[in-house]
Amino acid sequence: GHRLRLNDVKAMTDYKRLLSKLASFGYLLDNEINLMLNQVKRVDDIPYHLDAENDRIGYKVMDSISYNVTFGYATIFAYLKEAENLKNRDEALSRALVMP
After folding, report:
1. pLDDT digits over 39-58, tens only?
2. CA contacts within 13 A on the Cβ side of 66
């Protein structure tokens, strides 16, 4: 399928509306969007562990799973990918869907 590019996002009305509110931060906004676009393609590149009982995603650190480690937007996209497997989806997503 078609992968979004920064120029595709920049053509969207919502982007233009946000940019009008953050005009002096256009470079930062574009940088974050580029990070998202790159990391969404790689959500499965970093193996993660879903603790379905506690609605959290962890990563292997040494010989254990750490739930304090995140990989920026890749972790957010992992939560979105696993949303249907979370017990308290809305609560878990509200904790996870923050700027990394």
Report:
1. 998 889 999 999 989 999 99
2. 8
